[in-house]
Amino acid sequence: MTPEHGLRTRLLGIDTHAETVVFLRKDCSLCRSEGFTSHNRILLSAGDRHAIATLYQVESEFLGCDEAGLSDATGRALGVKEGDVITARHAPPVESLGLVRSRIYGHALDEQAFGRIIPDIVAGRYSAIEVTSFITACAAKPLTGDEVRFLTRAMVDAGNRLRWDQPVIADKHSVGGLPGNRTTPIVVAICAALGLVMPKTSSRAITSPAGTADTMETLAPVALDELALRAVIKQEGGCIAWGGAMRLSPADDILIRIEHALDIDSEGQMIASILSKKIAAGATHLVIDMPVGPTAKVRSIEAAASLTAGLAVVADAFGIHIKVMQGDGSQPIGRGIGPALEARDVLAVLKGQPDAPQDLRARALALASGLLELCGKADPGQGTTLASVTLDDGRAWSKFQHICAAQGGMRIPPQARHTKILAAGHGGVLEALDNRRIARLAKLAGAPYAKAAGVELHVRLGDRVSTGTPLCTLHAEAEGELAYALSYAEANPDMFGIT
Amino acid sequence: MTPEHGLRTRLLGIDTHAETVVFLRKDCSLCRSEGFTSHNRILLSAGDRHAIATLYQVESEFLGCDEAGLSDATGRALGVKEGDVITARHAPPVESLGLVRSRIYGHALDEQAFGRIIPDIVAGRYSAIEVTSFITACAAKPLTGDEVRFLTRAMVDAGNRLRWDQPVIADKHSVGGLPGNRTTPIVVAICAALGLVMPKTSSRAITSPAGTADTMETLAPVALDELALRAVIKQEGGCIAWGGAMRLSPADDILIRIEHALDIDSEGQMIASILSKKIAAGATHLVIDMPVGPTAKVRSIEAAASLTAGLAVVADAFGIHIKVMQGDGSQPIGRGIGPALEARDVLAVLKGQPDAPQDLRARALALASGLLELCGKADPGQGTTLASVTLDDGRAWSKFQHICAAQGGMRIPPQARHTKILAAGHGGVLEALDNRRIARLAKLAGAPYAKAAGVELHVRLGDRVSTGTPLCTLHAEAEGELAYALSYAEANPDMFGIT
């Protein structure tokens, strides 16, 4: 009895991140007969593939009455190409949303509940506002210790999980918020050179001027699939790959986008986010870099202590050995901010160049040392010496070159065509640096989209400067972007706090 | 120094409800130089008009690199036409979001905080996920009594407020959830006939098969502006108008859309929603119809008692006299479900036709009686008699006709071209009716979009039926819609619980 509601697909090339969106003409017979209105959730079907999408209704001619406009995420979910025929109807209720409502109304969730919510989120059955509601409910009435554990477990189970034969799998995570804090390639090179197995997967930038994967990509290919990653590990013991192709805790990728948009970071969700990725990657020993500072992600000693304790409890429940290493988060680390500029800092440290940024070197050595001791490669108190020697005698640099080769061939980071030095407008002592505005400056110059773009810092906290002392150099691939960053810098001279 | 980033507008005719959305090409120089990514919030400017919009990036040719595609809400907010030139840049941070985050993290909000959040929401400065976060935070950690009062005040202040010279302004609200519960036109006719001043503003359907404004529109024009509404009140003492043109508590329209999408109704927000609209409309005496039943909005006696108490406290704080009248919410009221079908029930009651639905008549009389007593037009216990007499002697019907004439001329509700009787598949007693699925059936038949469409019920709870007894008649304006509703009915025979 049901009329055939076939629609031809139009791939509109609209990037809506993970949210599946469909555009239909308001006056099409389907919208009328189904009583669809904008923001309804619609079940789309192409053969035996289905996707639930958020509807926006269209009243103009850019879409025909027999067409369904699909966002990128919707096209991917359905696996369709332009002009394929799909059907649409009201989406059946997503049962697990009842559990989210029950969380909102004050009931803690059990393991089974998270085990139903998270797979539905990963399958795209939640709209952005439904994901938001889940995240906010878990922040407004903080997750209990049990709930954090259940959430972590559900996030791990809803994705792929790498399993390794070796008993010790080393890993490293940075809580983030510090521009230029690009220690990962150095830590991996040192640890792998000493025989640790370290299959490091990293992310691209979401809101920062560069993620580790963006930086590493200027030095070697990073988009490895699981097979390629395993081959690199078998050969070199370490890698620095982009994790996105591996579906490790895919729920995290969806939740973190919304958390960024809302600018909320609840402790429980941060713990589940960090640990689910690492458990899925198969880590057994994990060092966590936690910069603490007024414009970093973790802003106080109290917040750092609480997060550290929470991480320890959940890691313990999953049998993972962790060491949290707090560090100074008051200013960027290294000189470069932006993929290629950071890569050059990394190379300078690995090659032992005399002009290598000492803060980056020191932080990388500290983290490598912590990991070596945690994994039993160095006796307590001996990690720093072992790491320093491995870096200074060239073994880490040699290992890094081999890793790059195994990942597909070493690359030379690109150089920006346009540069401009920003000088101090007055003399004094540099007493503060605003991490957030400096990150913004690098992004306006084109990072991470333009690999060579970003900011190269020439000063550190405590430096005495005079009028005209170079504070930083802007790097850009396009003249317009350079001008744009420059005008932002001129409007925000106080991102360098000189007094 | 800033390059001129002019973009030509394309009005895409996309309905995103209240959320302002802008589409830009991912590869346009603006996205690159500003470092925009999808879901960023962008400040658009057309002369001295501004709007903050959510960005979706486009990678296909349907948009040019120098074009900005605008959703309907964005075009309205900027007041632009196709081809106008606008500029775009990163939106400045919305300060009041910090207050929302503080609510999420457990701090109650004061009057000033709500006074900053609500105007920002009304001005479109919040994205849908930011509004969601606010709503969820206020549900997960329920609003205190003070907060409900502050929220109500802020919602009233953020819109227009009607002021009347008369000391008593009567009003009526129904908590909703019952299909066909269309008492308002009858209550207004009775009360206005007895000299009460009752400037009733109603809403259109959001998720139901008909709102009071949809039903009334089949009987008279309802889209009155404030001037027209005042003229009707001056002449007739009562009206039944659509409130949407009047900007009464516009925040409510935005919040309620998201609450519907999430299917959450927290008590505090429900109180602020109901009362802010009524305070803004200038009501001094208010009767609230609260159907209670397993598939109605208020599902238990306990929930009804708590909501009633909360309404009383806040109404008292604003000096409004209210009377909450709980009623049976176990089945639809009247026969018709859908704009024109409900209008015919209303006419039958007003005209005193012998076949008029008695449940609708009884409920309307009860509410009118309550309002008459509350306003001092009838002594306690005498309201029902007064209301009945006014209905039975034709004064209410006469007043209703005059109101329709004053609103622009009485109309005859349309009749559907296609009908189909649904008959009982087996005999027994009708023991349950599913309000939600019956509402869905009416929507599939085309209501409220197709004014004549909907469901006409022929049975009531407790009726004994045999195989073949007509249960209801489907009404549709298009054959396809009739077939579609029919197939839903056939797949859901248990929406009529015959045992």
Question: What does this protein structure show overall?
Answer:
The structure is a homodimer of 499-residue chains. Chain A folds into three domains: 6-90, Barwin-like endoglucanases (Beta Barrel); 170-243 and 275-406, Nucleoside phosphorylase/phosphoribosyltransferase catalytic domain (Pyrimidine Nucleoside Phosphorylase, Chain A, domain 2), CATH 3.40.1030; 418-498, Aldehyde Oxidoreductase, domain 3. Helix content of chain A is 41%, strand content 20%. Chain A has 18 helices and 19 strands. In chain A, the strands form five sheets. The first copy, chain A, has a six-stranded mixed barrel. In chain A, strands 13-16-18-14 form a four-stranded antiparallel beta sheet. Chain A has a three-stranded parallel beta sheet with strand order 8-11-12, sandwiched between helices. In chain A, a hairpin with a 2-residue loop joins strand 4 (41-46) and strand 5 (49-58). In chain A, helix 4 (111-122) packs across helix 6 (145-157) and helix 17 (435-444) packs antiparallel against helix 18 (479-491). Chain A is globular and about 75 Å long. The model of chain A has no long low-confidence stretch (mean pLDDT 93). The interface between A and B is large, with 65 and 66 residues.
